[in-house]
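User: Assemble these into one structure.

Assistant: Restating your components, then the assembled model:
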Amino acid sequence: MADDSLLIAGSWAAAMLRSSTPLMMVTLGETLTQRVGIVNLGIEGQMLCGACAGFAVAAQTGSPILGLAAGALAGVLLSLIHAGLCLGCAANQIGSGIAVWTLGLGLTSYFGRAAVGGQVSGLAPMAGPDAMSLPFMGPILTQLTPIAPFAIALVIIAGLWLARTRTGLNWRIVGESFETARALGLRPTIIQAQGILLGGLLSGFAGAILSVDYTQTWANEMTKGRGFVAVGLVIVARWNPFLVLPVVLLFGLSEAATLRLQATGLTLSPYLISCLPYVVCLCCVIVVSLREGRIGGMPAELASVFGSRR
Amino acid sequence: MMRTERIRLLAVGGGGAAFLIAAIIFLLAIGRPPLTTLGQMTLYAFGDGYSLSESLVKATPILLCALAVILPARLGLITVGGEGQLYIGALTGTAVVVTFPHGPLVLLLPAMLAAGAIGGGLWSGAAGLLRARCNVNETISTLLMNYVAVQLVNYVIYGAWKDPGSLGWPASIAFPPAATVPSLMGTRVHVGLIVGVIAAIVLHVGVTYTRWGIALKVLAGNRKVGAMAGFSFVRQTLLVMAIGGALAGFAGICETSAIQGRLQAGLSVGYGLTGFLVAWLSGQHFLRAVPIAILIGGLIAAGDALQLYSKIPSASATILQGLLFVAALGASGLAGRRIARHG
């Protein structure tokens, strides 16, 4: 009996981790971008490009690792446009993000046609079927690829880096006050560009995880607004990489829970269920926004773009 | 003053040139003769009466969705919710038709259109309420609500409203003639276009010449000053969001009734997003949005025609829209910076 419940808990954890790894990476990317005072709504488009390019390369070469790398690169390339518009041309960040999203949508539905119906083999699970007998860890080790622990490690490393290192401090200074950063002799525009490109890298990587490792398919608009959900979750996680982990996992748990509920015979329309991520995300944003004044955490430079505008 | 005007003009010219260059590079990259293709697109968009009417058909929801972005922008709000409001308008308008399929024209048509507008208005008003009362960023809430709206339409057309006579195709019943938005002069262009143009004029006059316009301007500039002058940010937020949503919702039910003839999936090909682009290209100006919406409508219609005749996927129109948006944002951003520096 005890073994059974451990097994169930393990398979729940595995399902939750598997579905939330892409979201974890894109949320981390947007968190880091916003910490340098830049909002990038284009991550939805970057994630799409990452998914498309990653899938195409993985299908062509047969190597999931190359696919993941190509996806990350595609994300970086598209985020260059956001960096150029926001930093080079002083364009509005929200407008620029939507423009990048539009481009990502168009490019992937144009060039993605070639990838439709392709075959990829994802990464191998961390352990073979004999590990299934292990309590709790069994389902996790046999169902998850090394991507999930890698992603979790990345989140923790990013959090430590931002909180504990000199360069992390510089990034935070730029996000809090552009002028202070300049007075300290930093080059805030360069740091903001790095923030945007790192966000691009992680969102492209997230897209590639989605198409190469998780679903192993490519479909038009397959990210389905995960990038925008990530923008919401960044607010919920108060721009703190460490909080990205619990927030994304709780979010993944709510998704996994509904899927399981449906499997137990509760008849809910799949279309209503697919509303759930957006509704849950919006509800979380509402709750934290109501407490905005008390919990804080928003980088000060963001307020002019995003929070309480003017 | 003259200098500012000159920089603005330069920005429009520079943005246009940048877009043309980007478009040519894109067409070369996909192996199409760029100038011929661009010429073809112009013909497919505005070359003859039929092309022009198809461009106007596309321009109608785009214009209405653009107005739904411009009005909140006058209060300093950035909404990207046109797509969702359009879907909800289609949903609530169709609810009337599904409930009273045999209603008389004098009742059914107005009730359907009103229901569409009210649905879109409430959907968008909800985002306004969240913004005004709970400090939830309207850009994020509207973006997330778009996905919910699309799924709600899927929910009814695969479920309760699915027409048993449609042989498994997920769609509502066909709209009866009493619920069909009248078209103009035997083309597919319908009354929605006239409503859109009138709405643009009315909103322009309202925002430019009335006390309401002053309220929006003052509140957009500084909410505290606005409050001192007796203007309520909460009320104005609800108002602009609801009016904008009503226009987009109206676009949704018109598109469903006049063009599709039934509620079905894919009723919009990104009209909400395109409306957002048009609003920004117009510099958040109601009247300028009308010709720009027609131009972009032409681009989309030409994309469809290219797909049909030249086997270029219509996604190329989306890419061109993205390039246009990037060029325009870059040019206007640079111009704004020059004006700020040199006055």
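The two ends of chain B are 8 Å apart (CA to CA).
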